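Possible regression after last week's pipeline update?

I re-ran a chain I had predicted before the update to compare outputs. Posting the input and the new output here so someone can diff against the archived version. Not blocking, just want to make sure nothing changed silently.
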Amino acid sequence: VWVVRQFENEYNPIHYHDGHISGVGYLKVPKSLNDDTRSHKQDIKTHGTIDFIHGSRAFLSKCIYNHQPKVGDMILFPNYLMHTVYPFQSGEERRSFSFNAEIDQKIANVFKHE
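New output (post-update):
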């Protein structure tokens, strides 16, 4: 488990994790992330949000899940799921914790591709 403290204009580029299961929990988010009075310069979809990316873009298929974090949110996802965290414009801090976990090897082997 590790804690991530981010401030204005900081972000995490697209990446994935080791292990079997990964997760993120939100401890603190800037008020502006959930404020509908943002200026038009701030794209609501990417202002401090996190994208989870799976597969490729196809007709009638959504390959990106965009999440607007709130304090107390906790998201679990498979380690291979690509994701990115967008920057925000605020003098406040975004604080989250992240982790990777391994499942019992017997269970994990059920999903093993050879």
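Follow-up from reviewer: compared with the archived run. The mean pLDDT is 87. Marking as no regression found.
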